[in-house]
Amino acid sequence: MMTPTRTSDPVRMVLSFLGGWRALGHGAFG
């Protein structure tokens, strides 16, 4: 997860972050 990538680093981080928030607030954000 802490690997120096080109564009997969931010993408994966954002996806994971959004996924986590979505899972936590399955109705707060929509």
Search tags:
mainly alpha; single chain; 30 residues
Account of the protein in words:
The protein has 30 residues and is mainly alpha-helical. Helix content is 57%, strand content 0%. The chain contains one helix and no strands. It has one helix at residues 8-24. The protein starts with 7 loop residues before the first helix and ends in a 6-residue tail after the last helix.
Report the C-alpha radius of gyration, rounded.
11 Å
**What level of helicity do the residues show?**
55-70%
Number of strands: 0
Order of helices and strands: H
Report the uncertain regions: none
What general outline do the C-alpha atoms trace?
rod-shaped
Q: Give average pLDDT, whole number.
A: 72
Largest sheet data: none
Distance between the termini: 27 Å
What proportion strand? under 5%
Quickly give the structural class: mainly alpha
* Number of helices in the DSSP assignment: 1
Summarize the structure.
The protein is mainly α and 30 residues long. The chain is built from 1 helix and no strands. It has one helix at residues 8-24.
